[in-house]
Amino acid sequence: MSAAIEFREVCFATAQGRLLLDHISLALEAGTTTAILGRSGSGKTTLLRTVNRMVEHTGGEVLVRGEDVKAADLIVLRRGIGYVIQETGLFPHFTVERNAGIVLEVEGVARDERTRRGHDLLGKVGLDPEKFARRLPHQLSGGQRQRVGLARALAANPQILLMDEPFGALDPLTRTEMQDMLRRLLSEMTEREKKTVLMVTHDLDEALYLAQRIVLLHEGKLIASLTPEEFMRSEQAEVKAYIGAFHRGLKNTDEARR
Amino acid sequence: MSGNFWTQFGGEIATLTLEHLWLTGGAMLFATAIAVPAGIWLTRAPGWAKSVIGLANVLQTIPSLAMFGFLLPLPWLGERAARIAVVALTAYALLPILRNTYAGIRGIDPAVIEVAKALGLTGQQRLFKVELPLAASFILAGLRTATVTCVGIATIAAAVGAGGLGELIFRGVASVDNRLVLAGAIPAALLALAADAVLGLLERWFRAPAA
Q1: Taking CB atoms and an 8 Å limit, are B209 and A77 in contact across chains?
Q2: Per residue of chain B (211 residues), what is the pLDDT tens digit?
Q3: CA–CA distance, A183 with B148 (Å, rounded to integer)
Q4: Residue B171 falls inside a structural domain
């Protein structure tokens, strides 16, 4: 398998000289999902955003399908990469179906084809097009909005999907439904549709459930890049600390029961 | 006002009202053509925002009578009083339109702008599909403020002979004829109210749905 995204010694320093990414090297296999974990401020989002050049890295190279992103045409690069963020950023003045089809719209795809594709995707992310296509974003719940955000990111059939804490703002039950939906959606994709997903999350459970590779960042450095099984067995102090921070409540009740 | 008054001044009031509309409308067109693109440009180069909006602010503080006076000796402009009036009114209309265009676009949810960029909308697509529609009601609000202000200021234009309803007011003041003052002031006030109402409707029409 070839690398769909490759980071080579990637650095990012702010204008003030603070190093937010410190020589990150990492290759993401095509068609797989990778979760980036780490504290707030560890550089997760910054790393994710170097892929579509929402952040311009200051050192090293970022390769998308073997091509240096800095050499690529910015608009073409970005249209080939789906992007989902926690705040969704749906266009408030567009209907759900227009939101979903916006990348096709700016690419000049005919309206009928856009509508067909948009409705197809709304169905796949669990929104009945009959019911939702004509609504405006403010008429949707948080979970529904995030579904539209996902449909929009997938509309142009990009090979790469970047997700920045996509479900971070949702309640646990909705989040679980969204994770199920995403997992099913990704697993049902045909060879031609297969996505390489890079996802930033705080949620270890989400990472274990969705990703084939878990990457831990700490203060801009790559601490670990492991499969979920390796991650849970790791003896690395930072990894253990991260795992230890989860399900503390459960441990607490376990102890109380004894 | 007696019937006599109407037969004597009715036609003149109508002509001057039209003139007043022309002066204000022309100034609004010019001001919009300058201030909206300038406001958009400032959102792309926010480093300039403070100084450019500051400059428009200074223009706004020049007393209107003085403004007309300053423009009078200029070549070309000074030849025709209407030119002076339109330029002066344009200068007054710049600030509200400029400020609202800038603030309207800058005030859009940053997540919306971020996604528009990240999904590969070109700068132009982002402007016309996202930024302008979402800022439209703001820009119209600026236009509305500018129009109402300028309908008022345009009455001063008569001082340099540019015509408009101010002419009746000045004449009424000079001849101590309150009927003439009112014949200028009332249509001017009605124009301002009408402009306010129409642009207010447009503004509501273009108001973007909440995020």
Answers
A1: no
A2: 456 888 888 899 999 999 999 999 999 999 999 999 999 999 999 999 999 999 999 998 999 889 888 888 888 887 888 899 999 999 999 999 999 999 999 999 999 999 999 999 999 999 999 999 999 999 999 999 999 999 999 999 998 888 899 999 999 999 999 999 999 999 999 999 999 999 999 999 988 776 5
A3: 57
A4: yes
Domain ranges, residue B161: 3-205
Give A84 to chain B, closest Cα distance, Å.
Answer: 8
Residue B211 lies in a domain: no
The b/e string for B1-37 (b: 16+ C-beta within 10 A; e otherwise) is: eeeeeeeebeeebeebbebbbbbbbbbbebbbebbbe
Torsion angle (degrees, nearest 10) of CA A73, A76, A82, A84: 60
What pLDDT digit, counting tens, does each position of A184-217 carry?
Answer: 999 988 888 899 999 999 999 999 999 999 999 9
Residue B74 lies in a domain: yes
Look-up: residue for tokens 């000796």? B73
Using the beta-carbon criterion (under 8 Å), do A79 and B111 form an inter-chain contact? no
Q: How far apart are CA B70 and CA A98, in angstroms?
A: 52
Q: Measured between alpha carbons, how far is B89 from B64 in angstroms, rounded to an integer?
A: 9
CA-closest candidate to residue A137, choices B103, B121, B111, B120: B111
Tell me: the pLDDT tens digits for A231-248? 999 999 999 999 998 877
- Give the contacts of A40 (CB within 8 A, at least 6 positions apart): A202
Residue B210 lies in a domain: no
Residues of chain B with Cβ-Cβ distance to A92 below 8 Å are: 109, 112, 134, 208-211
Comparing alpha-carbon positions, the chain B residue that sits nearest to A106 is B121
With beta carbons less than 8 A apart as the criterion, state whether A53 and A78 touch.
yes
Those residues whose C-beta lies under 8 Å from the C-beta of residue A41, and which sit 6 or more positions away, are A219
Query: The CATH number of the domain where B201 resides is what?
Result: 1.10.3720.10
What does the DSSP 8-state code read for residue A198? Answer: E
The two structure tokens encoding residue A169: 């703002």
- CA A253-A254-A256 angle, to 5 degrees, is 60
Q: Read off the tokens for B196.
A: 């306010």
Q: Please give the C-alpha separations between residue B147 and each of A147, B93, B94, B192, in angstroms, as whole numbers.
A: 44, 7, 10, 7
The domain tally of chain B equals 1
> Between β-strands A81-85 and A221-226, what pairing exists: parallel, antiparallel or unpaired?
unpaired
pTM: 0.88
